[in-house]
Recover the amino acids of this structure.
């Protein structure tokens, strides 16, 4: 997890994305044959400056909302709760209202308990409003609201590439796909790093099964890597276990820390078939929803394969913020607890699906 976070901002199509992919290949290559497949997309290329009374303000452009070149002083400043930033359309209504009010640009000050900047996932297929929009840490709202604000922004679309990494062992039979995303907005120690660490632990202990590990790119851009893998899949696996966001994230409680209670798991299995999965995840405080046809995260892509799916996700207090660092995200004890529970849950899930089949 620390190594992953130290690689920097894990945005799809960047040099840090390439470095992350290479690191993951090194991490997993002892488990079997490694296959890398390119996922091409239109990458948002942006340069911007935001100032309040000529003082620079840290910010993040809202990807794909505007292309072109603008130098705007008629800028709306709005406070807004992005709900963790996991829903690509969360700010659409606010942006449309601001555009109709005739402003040249919009600054969204993201509400967060610690006044952080919260990045928002984007959907490549969504239609942009054309309004230059940037995200700013909520703690800057008072300064921006009482200052002369200026936004310079130049943005366009360029050819981009991310990658899906596949690692297959040599065990015969219909395969268990064990998968997690590789990308995110910042260091993403808790959001992504804990899942990668748990995936490595689980994969090591399931080498006696026909196993394919799939790490996907493009998480923050509509899960495009997962959808690309599903689209290209010629032989559906026996089942898919997706390890999603914030699986081993802790939060401060009183003078101590505990695993966050927002973590959930979803599966297509019924309650009876999933009993072993439920019991294992209970040991890590993860609630399982059975007979699921509603998904959060990449589970919605993997469900299109029409095979049994087990998918986990969650959102910690530093989700989608620059503060998602190893020191704040988790501890060795929490990682060990979750890794052990997920190993037992995935083993029970695979056994239940093969029995059902």
């Amino acid at each position: 997890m620390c190594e992953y976070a130290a690689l920097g901002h894990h945005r799809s199509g960047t040099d840090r994305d390439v470095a992350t992919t290479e690191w993951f290949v090194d991490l997993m290559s002892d488990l079997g044959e490694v296959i890398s497949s390119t996922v091409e997309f239109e990458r948002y290329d942006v340069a911007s400056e935001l100032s309040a009374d000529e003082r620079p303000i840290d910010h993040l452009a809202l990807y794909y909302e505007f292309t072109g070149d603008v130098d705007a002083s008629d800028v709306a400043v709005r406070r807004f709760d992005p709900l963790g930033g996991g829903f690509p359309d969360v700010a659409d209504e606010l942006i449309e209202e601001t555009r109709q009010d005739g402003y040249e640009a919009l600054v969204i000050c993201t509400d967060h308990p610690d006044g952080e900047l919260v990045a928002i996932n984007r959907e490549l297929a969504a239609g942009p409003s054309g309004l230059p929009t940037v995200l700013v840490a909520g703690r800057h709202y008072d300064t921006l609201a009482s200052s002369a604000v200026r936004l310079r922004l130049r943005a366009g679309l360029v050819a981009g590439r991310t990658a899906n990494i596949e690692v297959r062992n040599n065990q015969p039979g219909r395969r268990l796909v064990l998968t997690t995303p590789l990308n995110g907005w910042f260091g993403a120690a808790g959001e992504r790093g804990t899942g990668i660490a748990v995936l490595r632990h689980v994969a090591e202990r399931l080498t006696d099964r026909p196993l394919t590990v799939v790490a996907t790119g493009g998480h923050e851009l509509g899960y495009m890597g997962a959808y690309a893998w599903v689209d290209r899949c010629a032989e559906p696996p026996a089942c898919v276990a997706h390890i999603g966001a914030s699986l081993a994230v802790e939060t401060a409680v009183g003078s101590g820390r505990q695993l966050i209670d927002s973590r959930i798991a979803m599966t297509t299995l019924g309650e009876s078939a999933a009993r072993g999965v439920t019991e294992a995840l209970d040991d890590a405080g993860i609630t399982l929803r059975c007979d699921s046809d509603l998904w959060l995260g990449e589970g919605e892509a993997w469900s299109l394969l029409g095979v049994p799916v087990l998918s986990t996700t969650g959102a910690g207090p530093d989700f989608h913020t620059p503060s998602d660092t190893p020191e704040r995200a988790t501890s060795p004890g929490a990682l060990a607890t979750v890794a052990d529970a997920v190993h037992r849950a995935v083993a029970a899930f695979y056994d239940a699906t093969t029995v059902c089949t």
